[in-house]
Structure formats: C-alpha cells, structure tokens
C-alpha cells in the first residue's frame, strides 16, 4: 500500500509541475500572484528585498499554477501589485536610493486608496503587464530599485540669531562639587569631569530656556578658571586633549553671512556691530584657554600634538566674527600661540597672508583685518636683522596692496604701523614703499586721500636723507596736486607738512628740487582758493621758503612768471593755427561756403596775457609779512581756523549759523547717524563693559 501511495503522489506532482511549466510559458509576471503565498511588499518598503535565489524561483513557478484557480477579486488584487523580480535579477548590486520627502510613506496611499495604481505605473513605464521587458537604462534602474522614503518631521529650522546651530534636544547637566570640597587626590579626575561637562552647548537664542544648565556651565567654567590660575601642577598629560577638545567644541564653528547690510545703509564706523548671544560662556572659555597656555606648567612639546595646523586654521576662521569682543580675545590667543609654538610661526604667517589675499582680490570684506594687522605689527617688531627676502616680499605683495581696498579706514592705523615698523628695520625700503603708495593713491576718494597723507608723513619721519632724494620728485608732484585740491581737508592735510620740523629740514636740504615743483600750487592757491584757512597756511609755507633761501624764492617766482607767459603764447599760437586751417577749408570749399548742416564749433579766444608785474614779485615778501588772519570778522575761531558749518546737521534741525558754536550734550557735531539701523542700548552697554586682557585692571575704590 505504501508503494502504491508513493507512486500516485509522484505521478500527481509530475502532472502539476508539467502543467505549471505550460502555464508559466504563456502567463505574464502580473498574473503570478498566489493566494497562498504572501504578496510581494510594495516598492517603497522600508527595507530593500534580497535578491531571488533558486528556491524563490521554484515558489514563483508554483504560484503561477495556482493563480488560475484563484477568484477574480484575488486576480484583480494581484494585478495591482507589480513584480520587480526581473529587474532585481538584472541589477541586484544597485544600492538603495534615499528619498527625502515631507509626505507620508506611500504604502499608506496604497492602503487608503480604493483606486488601483497600475495605470499610473504604466504611464511611467514601470508596469510590464503587457509582457514587454523594460529597457535596461539608468533611469529605469533608479525607478524600479528599492527606495527608502524618509518623511520630513517638524518645521524647517528657524533663522538663528546666534552664530551656532545647536541641537534641539534638551540636555541636563548635573552640578559637580567644587574643587575645595574634595580631597586633593580626587581633584584631577574631577577636573576631567568638569571639562567633559563644559562640552555641552546651550541655545542662547531663547534667553529663558535651560537657565539652570546655563548657570551650572558658567559656574563650572569659573571654577576651572580659578583652579588653573591659582593651583600648581594641575596640567598633566591627559589634560591637554581634554582642554583642546572643550575649546574646539565651544568655539569652532562656521561664521554665518554678515547680518548688517552693505553699502550706504551701514556705516561700520558709527553703527554698532552684531554681538554673539553665547558670549557669557565663550568669554570664560577664551579666558580659561589663555590661562592654560600661559600657565608655568604648560609643556609645548606635549601640546603641539593637539594645537597643530588645523587648530590654527579654525582659529583664523573665527576672526571674521562680527563681535569685536571675540576678535579681541582671538588676537590675544593667536599671539600667545605664535610666541609659544616655534614650529607654527611660519605657518601662521603664511595663513594670515592667505586671508589677506582673499580679502584683497576676492571678497573685500572681512571683520578681523585690523586685529590680524595688530598681531603682525608685534611680529614685525621682533624680526631679526637683516630682513629676510620672505619678509620684504610680504611688505610689497601684501601690506602695500592692502591700501587699495575701499574699507581702508577700518584698519588703516594698524596697517600704517606695520609699514613704519618695516622702515625702522630697513630704511632702504622707503623708495619701494613710497612708490607703492603713489601707485595706489586714491583719485576720487578724499577721506582716503587724507589717510594716505597721514601715512606718508609717518613714512617721511623714518626716512633717511639719502633715501628721501630718491623719492622727492614724485612725492612732491603728488603733494602739489593735493594742495590744488578743492577739498579743503586734503589741501589742509598736505599743507600741515610744513609744520613738521623733520620734513621741513628735508625740504630745505633739497630746496632747489622741491620749490620749483610746489611753488605754482602754493602761489595759485594763495590767490584763488575758496577756503580762507588754506590762504593762511599757504602764506605760511611761502614765507618759510622765502626765509630759507630768498634768492631761490625770487628765481622760482621768475620761472613761474615765464612759464605763465609761455603758456599764454602757446594758447595764442594754437588759436591762430586753427583760424588758418579754417580759412584754408573755406577756400577749398565750393563757393567758399561750408556744406549744409555743418555747425562750426565755437573756439574760445586765447586768454589775456598774464599780469604778473615785477611789483608783485618784489612786494610778495611784504604781502606775506603783512598777511594776518586776526582781522577776519566772524569766520575764524580763536585758534585761527575757519569755522565751517556742520556737514550733516540732520533732517529735523535747521542748519546752524557759521559763527554759532554752542552745542548741547545731546547734540554733537554729527548727531544724525548715517545708517538707518536702530540703536540697541544693550549692544552699546556690552561694548563699554568689555575690557581687553591687554588693558590694565581697574582699581577698585577703597
């Protein structure tokens, strides 16, 4: 009986397998869903399906045979579930695609909708119920491959006021005991725990959030600052990585784009900057790191493994912060690192040069140029003599081109100090510096021109007489143009050179070269300049030249007169030549008439002859001696300077009288701010309360 039963079962199974093979030859993949086998998962399931194997092929063939005996509802349901097995066999190694979408997962759409999706998939080319095999293209592989849909949860991140984007999870830190309350043997371990605790960041955009945690962290930072300042032997080998890690976690961040606008809406000299909201914690971190580096127990050889070149680069990126308090601490921190780590000095100088190059030739916007130049000023002061070619190249390729940037006023004092430091080290660089300044001399920016005149005077103060002879001709040609300027501040600043005793000595030693260059400008402005203050200063300069060398002064007067006569004769010859050309053109024209429509341009007659009499030359000394500015009524103050009305009195006040100089405390010379940004009193208070570490401590009242 058992053998008969086995033969019947084997015959039945062979018939089933043969019938299933015939049906599978004519059936399509969409008709192969079995009611007994579980349907394949939707194409957007959370996990990709594994590649099919031999057993799965056998199950698929079995499901083909059982599909004909299923009901019509099951068949329609099976048709709505496409099979991706053929595509997965061809591209089994294709990685899954992650699609970020704010919509809910698509399997919910399959469950919630009564309409089949086969029509939509057929329009996309993903439904292969017609028996056609899709083309093996990259787009089809991407469409047919398994997908992980990650829904977007929550709202997009709001605009942060702080420069750091912190995590939104609420973090609580515990209050650790103070150092003085535990035995000395346990303090090193407690120090490490406190360093770990201070790596936690808090969101300062919400002033009322996590107040307890912020207070605990600030107290912990103060405790560590006092501990490292007052105790000896607390800096061990395992402390270095923890301190550097805590410093980097709190401070290293990407500086966001500037909040303040550019252009006329923002004046960096008058408007308050945007302060860092997390400064209560950042300030203590900076102070702690500075005390750590300055500690007598600090070992540079141990620290150089952690304070390396990437650390310096991250530190330099922070110099673009808009908070001047942070830039002040960064300046001190980088200077301490430069002094401690000899192996990083060349890299620091090279990295600062790269910041300058990007500022000069690419962005023309950086908040920390003044602080970086201040660091370089002290570095240049320590250069050994003779100067290396690297340092001279830095002067000519970096410092001199910094003069051409529009925002020169933000860092010009520090830049001029660096240039003067180079000249004090090597006076032979004066010619190269002066020619560079003349190359970048502003043409239409009068305030910038005044700054150049300030710097040139500082350069002349440290220039040797031998080097002065190399630059005197181009320099005084530019000074003559400045004296002729209609901007009275430019002319006034140029004439102040005659109040510098050293510059006057240089001019007197080379008067034969200097006087013929500047005399025409001085004489012309003594007669025609609109500002009376300039008249008085020009008279003083001419009188000084006349007292130094009267014969040369008279000779310059005669040369000036002869030059004016030659100019007038040249103008007459030019006018006569044009008249002769006109007569020749009329003679050659038909009927001695010009063509119709021709409009002859008007040519002014030559100027009248220059009336410079010998009496004017002979009596010039009397004019200069008799020139007095005491009798000018109402327009000069007690110091002899002209009273100029306010340049920007404001829109809501009338322009004051010229002679009225009574100002109240609320109304200054420039009371109306150039910017339209509102004034934040908290910003002004915080800036006034900030004190640099380089400043002397305030004396407490007794």
TrEMBL record:
<comment type="subunit">
    <text>PP2A consists of a common heterodimeric core enzyme, composed of a 36 kDa catalytic subunit (subunit C) and a 65 kDa constant regulatory subunit (PR65 or subunit A), that associates with a variety of regulatory subunits. Proteins that associate with the core dimer include three families of regulatory subunits B (the R2/B/PR55/B55, R3/B''/PR72/PR130/PR59 and R5/B'/B56 families), the 48 kDa variable regulatory subunit, viral proteins, and cell signaling molecules.</text>
</comment>
<keyword id="KW-0597">Phosphoprotein</keyword>
<feature type="compositionally biased region" description="Pro residues">
    <location>
        <begin position="37"/>
        <end position="53"/>
    </location>
</feature>
<dbReference type="GO" id="GO:0005737">
    <property type="term" value="C:cytoplasm"/>
</dbReference>
<feature type="compositionally biased region" description="Low complexity">
    <location>
        <begin position="54"/>
        <end position="81"/>
    </location>
</feature>
<feature type="compositionally biased region" description="Polar residues">
    <location>
        <begin position="112"/>
        <end position="122"/>
    </location>
</feature>
<dbReference type="GO" id="GO:0005816">
    <property type="term" value="C:spindle pole body"/>
</dbReference>
<feature type="compositionally biased region" description="Polar residues">
    <location>
        <begin position="129"/>
        <end position="138"/>
    </location>
</feature>
<dbReference type="InterPro" id="IPR011989">
    <property type="entry name" value="ARM-like"/>
</dbReference>
<dbReference type="GO" id="GO:0019888">
    <property type="term" value="F:protein phosphatase regulator activity"/>
</dbReference>
<keyword id="KW-0539">Nucleus</keyword>
<dbReference type="GO" id="GO:0000776">
    <property type="term" value="C:kinetochore"/>
</dbReference>
<keyword id="KW-0963">Cytoplasm</keyword>
<feature type="region of interest" description="Disordered">
    <location>
        <begin position="1"/>
        <end position="138"/>
    </location>
</feature>
<dbReference type="GO" id="GO:0051754">
    <property type="term" value="P:meiotic sister chromatid cohesion, centromeric"/>
</dbReference>
<dbReference type="InterPro" id="IPR002554">
    <property type="entry name" value="PP2A_B56"/>
</dbReference>
<feature type="region of interest" description="Disordered">
    <location>
        <begin position="646"/>
        <end position="681"/>
    </location>
</feature>
<dbReference type="GO" id="GO:0000159">
    <property type="term" value="C:protein phosphatase type 2A complex"/>
</dbReference>
<protein>
    <recommendedName>
        <fullName>Serine/threonine-protein phosphatase 2A 56 kDa regulatory subunit</fullName>
    </recommendedName>
</protein>
<dbReference type="Pfam" id="PF01603">
    <property type="entry name" value="B56"/>
</dbReference>
<dbReference type="GO" id="GO:0035556">
    <property type="term" value="P:intracellular signal transduction"/>
</dbReference>
<feature type="compositionally biased region" description="Low complexity">
    <location>
        <begin position="92"/>
        <end position="101"/>
    </location>
</feature>
<dbReference type="GO" id="GO:0005634">
    <property type="term" value="C:nucleus"/>
</dbReference>
<dbReference type="GO" id="GO:0098813">
    <property type="term" value="P:nuclear chromosome segregation"/>
</dbReference>
<dbReference type="GO" id="GO:1901991">
    <property type="term" value="P:negative regulation of mitotic cell cycle phase transition"/>
</dbReference>
<comment type="similarity">
    <text>Belongs to the phosphatase 2A regulatory subunit B family.</text>
</comment>
<comment type="function">
    <text>The B regulatory subunit might modulate substrate selectivity and catalytic activity, and also might direct the localization of the catalytic enzyme to a particular subcellular compartment.</text>
</comment>
<dbReference type="InterPro" id="IPR016024">
    <property type="entry name" value="ARM-type_fold"/>
</dbReference>
